[in-house]
Amino acid sequence: MTAQLNPRGDVAVLIPAAGAGVRLGPGGPKALRLLGDEPLLVHAVRRVAAAPSVRTIVVAAPPAEVAAVRQLLAPVAAVTVVAGGVERQESVALALAAVPAGPEIILVHDAARALAPPELFESVAAAVRSGRPAVIPVLPVVDTVKEVDADGVVLGTVDRSALRAVQTPQGFRRAVLAAAHAGAAGSLTDDAGLVEKQGIPVTCVQGHEHALKITRPFDLAVATLLLAS
Ligand code: CTP
Ligand code: MG
Fold first, then answer.
1. Which ligand has an atom closest to residue 18 CA?
2. Rounded Cα gap, residues 167 and 210, in angstroms
3. Out of 3, 19, 109, 175, which could bridge 49 as a Cys pair, Cβ 3.0 to 4.6 Å?
4. What is the predicted pLDDT for the residue at 4?
5. How far is C-alpha 39 from the chain's CA centre?
6. How many A from CA of 18 to the centre of ligand 2?
7. b/e for 182-193, b at 16 or more Cβ within 10 A?
8. Can you tell me whether residue 117 is helix, strand or coil?
């Protein structure tokens, strides 16, 4: 089945998927590891393609796996696959450069958040469409958070009510993301961080528990249970 992406959609989704997955333990690149019967990236792309506003998907694949990823995704959805970079930020920039003219809303989504539901893409895109230059999905922080020194001695307790855990997809006006990447120095794990540095307001919307990032083996076990439920 080939998913037909909406030609009238105003959203392009970038999926950085070029990471090694070191924290997941030995094995191939994380995006190609299996969750249930299918690679993480297949789960992620299927959910992105099911979001009605999405017109274009660009995946940044491990450079050695570009042809394999194209083949893997061809039956899932119409996607453009480019070689990713050494850092996530570079992979995002390379994917952004491959977005054709048209979509004015860009969402950046980690392949590692393979179970983020289509509704989350729609709600982030809707907030950008309504005039917000940059939008991030967040969840409240449930644990008590302490600041500690290098010896593990507690320096203080952070006010949890003011904290949020940040997910992807993160959404941007196209020009805002392009300017943030053009001006980027160093590397950040999140695109909204680049935009913040430019003094542009970043707005939060409600995140989703299924958008958890699969980082360690425990997360993969949780995602496997979610998928089966
Ligand atoms: N990513 C990327 N290019 C890189 C590094 C990361 O496209 N050079 C992507 C990953 O594929 C992932 C997302 O960025 O979808 C979030 O990164 P992370 O969860 O850290 O994945 P990995 O870098 O693969 O994992 P690890 O840090 O454990 O090696
Ligand atoms: Mg990483």
1. 1
2. 10
3. 3
4. 56
5. 16
6. 9
7. eebeeebebbbb
8. coil
pLDDT, tens only, 141-195: 999 999 999 999 999 999 999 999 999 999 999 999 999 988 877 677 789 988 9
Please tell me whether the peptide bond between 169 and the residue prior to it is cis, using omega within 30 degrees of 0. Answer: yes
Angle, alpha carbons 37-42-43 (nearest 5°):
75
86 Cβ below 6 A of ligand 1: yes
Nearest atom in ligand 1 to the alpha carbon of residue 30 is: 24
Give the residue ranges of DSSP H helices in 152-207.
Answer: 174-182, 191-197
Structure tokens at 188: 């950040």
pLDDT digits (tens, 9 = 90+) for 66-99: 999 999 999 999 999 999 999 999 999 999 999 9
> How much distance in Å is there from the Cα of 21 to the middle of ligand 2?
7
Q: Are 93 and 106 in contact (CB under 8 A)?
A: no
Q: How far is the CA of 107 from the CAs of 55, 118, 143, 153, 170, in angstroms?
A: 11, 12, 28, 39, 5
Which residue, chain included where needed, has tokens 């089966």? 228
**Is 154 within 8 Å of 124 (Cβ atoms)?**
no
Helix, strand or coil, per DSSP, at residue 98? coil
Q: For 190-209, write each residue's pLDDT tens digit.
A: 899 889 988 999 999 999 99
Amino acid at 3: A
Residue count of the chain: 229
Residue 3 scores a pLDDT above 50 = no
* Tokens at 206, concatenated: 């409600």
